[in-house]
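pasting for ref
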Amino acid sequence: MNEKTEMLNCKEVIKKLYDFLADEITVEDVLKFKTHIEKCGHCNEVTLFHKKLKEIVKNSTKETASEELKRRILASFEK
């Protein structure tokens, strides 16, 4: 494995997990991250759990605020 595709360690993977799930890490780090989780069962399970959790939270928050609530919130900023 060359220097650019060197694996991250478990601590680094956990530290970058949410940035990875939010697509907020470099292409180089994505490759390192994926290389690590392909080889490390524990980090793979942790990543899959948090990915699923993120999907559940995203899908459970599809309600929108009523126009009245929006007006009240905006009015509270004007005080």
